[in-house]
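Weekly structure sync - notes
Attendees: PM, LS, DV (DV joined late)
Agenda: review two folding runs queued last week.

Item 1: First target. Sequence and structure tokens pasted below for the record.
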Amino acid sequence: MLKDKTIEAIKRILGNQAVKAEASKTFALPEQASQIPELVKLALREKFKILPLGNQTRIDLSKFSENDTLFLKMSRLSRIKKIVPQDLYAVVEPGLNLKELNSHLSPHNLFYPLSLDNSSESVGGSVAVGLSGNASGKEVHTKELVLALEIVNSSGEILKTGAEVFKSVTGYDTSRLLVGSWGTLGIITSVSLRVFPLNRKKEFEDLKFLSLSFPQRKEGNNPKVNLDRRIKKLLDPDGVFVDLF
């Protein structure tokens, strides 16, 4: 668990009811995206790490230190910010469940394809792990469906990447870099997603999620791992976010 003085400082930002201790771990549940920059700045001052969490469907928390990690549950950030049917996109907060997203899209004759009726994945979690699946013989990947992101970086700044209009590619590669980063490069506070007309739903009826394994720390001269580490060092030089690589 984090130090008492650190927990008290977190409570001053979020409120007493938004900080919980479970099995010697410290969990925080922000309700507003505006609270997160202050948490990151506190982490910089107090030298603890932050691990953002979705619905914890693919992560084993036992692998992380209890003494210097704040587990940031994003479930209360679950609002629909806007749905734009004419441009086929929606902007939502990361804690929204994918199944709930489709219940909001349906009245607009829209749907988001990477969702199953029995799925408990959150939008932010699906982006963080790079969720993908197979449908009608084609791979469907979150990277192709994320148009823009709003994140809080390791300095506590709010940054926007990408563009909401699908035809625009300005900054789009930066968004793609964050997809599948497992929360190690920033905290997602808003996601702009490409959505589809309901008349295309048959194309995704046989959707099956591809298996995802939790990143394992690898030693040695692995080019992919070395690149991940360089990106991590560049974007998080002070190590505010948990390092999985």
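Item 2: Second target, run right after the first with the same settings.
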Amino acid sequence: MATKEVDTVEPALAKHAFNRVLDSSEKESRDYKDNRTKLLQAEDGNSWDRHARNSASETERMAGAILRAIREYERRKTFGNCPSEAIPGPETRDMGGQFLTNKDRIEQQSKIFEIATLVPKGAILHLHFNAELHPTRLLEEARKMDNMCIRSIRPILSQEDLDLTEMVFSVKPKDTENANIFSSEYQGKDDNWKKPEIEPKIWMKWSDFRREFNEAHKGEYRAKYATADANMLDNGALPNSSEQGTVNLEPAENWLLRKMVLGEEEAYNPTQTVNGVWARFNQATRCFKGLLNYEKVYKWYISNAIDHMIKEKIMYAELRPMLLDKSIPTDDGKGKITNADQMKLIVEGVREKEAELKRAGKGDLFPFGLKIIYCTPRSIGKEKMQSEMKDCIDLKRQYPDLICGFDLVGAEDRPNNIGYYYEELVAFKKVCAEEGLDIPFLFHAGETLLDTGGSTEPSNSNLYDACLLQSKRIGHGFSLLKHPHLLDRFRKTETQPGICIELCPISNELLHLCRNIKEHPFPELLAAGIPCTVNSDNPSLFSNSMSHEFYQIMVGAPSMSIHSWKQLALWSLEYSCLSDEQKGRGKKIFLDSWEEFCKNVVSEYGKLGTFGSDKLVTSGNDKPETSGDDRLVTPGNDKLVTPDDGEKKYTFEIDEDKAKEDYKSSKNSVRNS
């Protein structure tokens, strides 16, 4: 009986005590809310993009409100990311999910992506030289070369051979013996191509290969390659190409295109591995290398790459060619064009394009041309590395305004780490200092999950050596957050410039460092005070572009805003290899184009809804006071962000009916283009 009394009385007392305390804790609750407001203000005041945000014009703030509202609308409507216990339908996608899975929807249905194509992007600082234009254009140019040849690592006799073989292009002399890759007698199998007595006998004319392949597989590979990218090509919307119009690929070209471009299935296959996807990446690189490396296409490529960058709203570029081969063939296949002569072709191509732009009154679209970062692989021996460094120095002497840095490239889970060459790299710095040559290190580092520099020892991380050797920037930096001490060395402060990270989010996803943009550490790196830039790395292999990268950044974290885009673009100029005078001019050009961009966003996309604006007044009341419409800044509203004192906070409400009709018409327009 006593037990029952305790059971009934004690809960009642407990409830009574709780209600009494709850009713009398108004001050504590108010203190909590005030402290929370101060906490948010402190966080906001120390955000990495605060300078861009604090300097924003009224138009930029309005454009930012539109951008945020559209993003959240597309999260719900375009992708269907609505938290629910219901199993989502097959049409539902994750905004910020797998890039290649979402790519078609992004390009055809997203206004955030539309806006991303318009945003001024500053400079691109991490772009491999041969990867700016889509392979379809290179294949089209190759048709014009009667002496373009191809070889295989095995005879092509079966479907298995088609799936497993690796193909390589090269321009050869017209009298080269014409092999038959479709014969069982073909000698190019295994490593025979390395034997001097065999190598001249394994090349088949590309025109002959196409004819035989097309006859055997008439219509077959166009059907088999019916992905979103292939449909875009057939419809004339060429991804990552500055030229417009249709390239009607033949079966042979479509088959090879699959080997040059990383596809959705091979990128996201559950059995795919880091080493496997890297092997596939290197195979693709080798496949289209010969499509670019010959005289005729070289200057054409430079001109068209610049056209494409201008279309992407890029004003300057630092490109990374692999210069280990030392030469490319002349158009007749008999001569060799040295690295120095290749640099001459680049300089001439840039000058011609700059003159063309100035004549058209468009010089500010690409005012500083481009520069070259000398790249060599980490897999070579020390003597060869010494030779590479000497060649880099020689090129810098000949082209002081073109060569702007030195980099070591390759998969970081394979030997060697940067520190393996520390003696050579220290000597390189010393020689440059003695001769007054400015060739900063711009190392790939941290593009790995293991982070052991191709060994089993964490102490061999390339990030350590990149830091010690005072790399001006590092490529990728994905694993930097594993190193708390290094974060202090990379961080930008009032007393140190920091070490900039060249972010390449889509590349990191497709090479299996993360599953999607939402798992990428870029928000954490930025929050830690690390200056970063946005880059596309290898767009021809990954079917991406700078517009796709800026889109991914915006949907990858809710904290990203229009001011974030602005700061990332400004850093791309600040951490470039331009002179201080050029950086100053570039910043002015950028800010002018930025304000014009914001006006366009407000004008074109403001039609989707209506604005509200308020100046938040901090008070001790239960809810914030406002000078206008309380509805727009009520507690719990996801539009409420505590602004700085005196800052007008814009909000934007999407009109669901207008948006539905506008998105529908945009979708139909894309389909019918």
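Discussion on item 2: The radius of gyration is 28 Å.
Action: LS to circulate a short write-up before next sync.
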